[in-house]
Amino acid sequence: MAVKPHGEHETVNALAKLLGSTRRTISARIRSSGLKPTGARRGFPIYQVAAVRALLQAPTDPNKMTAFQRGAHFKAEILERQIKDLCAQLCRREDAEAELQRIARFLDVALDVLPRRLARVCRLSAEVELRIKGHVSEARRSIRALEAERESRWAGKADAKETSHA
């Protein structure tokens, strides 16, 4: 077989390396399409690179796709739409942190008046009121510790991003 002069021609193995696919995939596509070799090199059939590249490209028209390709195509579109919808529901980090700060201030005020209000409403003794104040103070310390841990974690991630982009 003589090599036809138009275009570049390669063996299946060379086509796999050149096009970033497997030999098995290329052979299957060639077999299913009925593409004939344009010649031979060292006893192996060679094919026109452009023709094999066209076989590997998925059609963009859903009517020309196989059932599997059509399913994958539409599934990808559906997932893309779902991602866009989910992204639209996201809020900015600054907005979320501002809301958390507002809630924290409210909690701080509520915890501040809680022991006195309990003592007055439930007619608690000064000793019980003092014990409640101790528990409230302990809860505040735990909340502040969690907040400090969260902030240090975010700061660590920000530092890691800065060093990876540098």
Low-confidence stretches: none
Distance between the termini: 56 Å
Tell me what portion of residues adopts beta-strand conformation.
5-15%
Mean pLDDT: 85
Listing every helix as H and every strand as E from the N terminus to the C terminus, the arrangement reads: EHHEEHHHH
Number of discrete helical segments: 6
Number of strands: 3
How does this structure look, described?
This protein has 166 residues and is mainly α. It folds into three domains: 1-57, Multidrug-efflux Transporter Regulator, Chain: A, Domain 2 (Orthogonal Bundle), CATH 1.10.1660; 61-90, no CATH class; 91-165, no CATH class. The protein contains six helices and three strands, in the order βααββαααα. The protein has helices spanning 12-19, 23-33, 49-56, 67-89, 93-122, 126-165, and strands at residues 9-11, 39-41, 44-48. The chain has a three-stranded antiparallel β-sheet with strand order 1-3-2. Helix 1 (12-19) packs across helix 2 and helix 5 (93-122) runs antiparallel to helix 6. The chain is rod-shaped and about 100 Å long. It starts with 8 loop residues before the first strand and ends with a helix. The mean pLDDT is 85.
